[in-house]
Amino acid sequence: MRSRVIVVTGTPGTGKTSLCRRIVSRNKGWVHLDVGQFAVEVNAVIGYDDSLETSIVDTDILKRALLKHVSKRVEEGLHILIDGHYAAEVSPVKHVDYCLVLRCRPDVLWRRLTNLKRYSEDKARMNVESEITDYCYLMAKLHLKRKRIVQLDTTGISVGKTYTRFMECYREGFRCKGDVVDWVNFLLENPGKMSFLFR
Ligand SMILES: Nc1ncnc2c1ncn2[C@@H]1O[C@H](COP(=O)(O)OP(=O)(O)OP(=O)(O)O)[C@@H](O)[C@H]1O
Ligand SMILES: [Mg+2]
Predict the structure, then answer these.
(1) pLDDT in tens, 128-164
(2) How far apart are CA 192 and CA 196, in angstroms?
(3) Alpha carbons 52 and 26: distance in angstroms, whole number
(4) Quick one: average pLDDT of 42-56?
(5) CATH number of the CATH domain containing 24
(6) Which of 26, 119, 176, 189 could anchor a disulfide with 113, C-beta 3.0 to 4.6 Å?
């Protein structure tokens, strides 16, 4: 079977790593590449931005290293999951087959980030704003425009259910419809759900 390269992107906290771990634990021949960890391993991290509370990455170094690494994995016939909130921007387009964008409703994502991942309120707010404005989906459309891009909403469902939906989609060669999300409209219709953003 030919190798498949799948970009798994989405705002931090949408469940990319949880899903990728589930996929590799259940399927032989699949490997998981966490872009953030990979950037550290290949010395692409060149500093830290205190105001954004995030590492600064030299994307040229990272892209070159990713191209080399992914090419090798493809030759080995492996299925590769490239996991990261900026994975669509740095993955080698020529090798990418599909892109999965995980989504999560803003109020639920806020709870995941502040409770589960212990983000500061400022950092959680920045990420929730990115989710509301479809940032990762737009980046996927921009950088991987000729590839099949599917969104899956993880709001209120377990990692196991997300896994089942992913596998169905994968078996259909990413021809599945996926989910359409419109968080701005959701917040307009449920104004009480956005109070956390403005406190
Ligand atoms: N349906 C779901 N799918 C995936 N994760 C879920 C789901 N429901 C709840 N979660 C929880 O949300 C959190 C998501 O964390 P995870 O580290 O997988 O996200 P991530 O997208 O990899 O974030 P980051 O970009 O910061 O690495 C975990 O605590 C996970 O258990
Ligand atoms: Mg992760």
Answers:
(1) 999 999 999 999 999 999 999 999 999 999 999 999 9
(2) 9
(3) 36
(4) 95
(5) 3.40.50.300
(6) 119
Helix, strand, or coil (residue 100): strand
Q: How far is the CA of 9 from the centre of ligand 1 (A)?
A: 12
Q: How far is the CA of 100 from the centre of ligand 1 (A)?
A: 14
Domains identified in the chain, total number: 1
Distance separating alpha carbons of residues 196 and 107, to the nearest angstrom: 8
Contacts of 131 (CB under 8 A, 6+ apart): 11, 14, 103, 104, 106, 109, 183
Ligand 1: lining residues by beta carbon, under 6 Å: 10, 12-19, 85, 112, 116, 154, 157-159, 162
From the CA of 19, which ligand is nearest? 1
Q: Is the pTM of this model over 0.85?
A: yes
Q: How far is 40 from 86, CA to CA, in rounded Å?
A: 15
Q: What is the domain range of residue 149?
A: 5-198
Ligand 1 pocket test: pick from 83, 105, 159 the residue with the most ligand atoms within 8 Å of its Cβ. 159
Atom index in ligand 1 nearest the CA of residue 20 equals 18
Q: With 80 as the cut, is the pLDDT of residue 80 above it?
A: yes
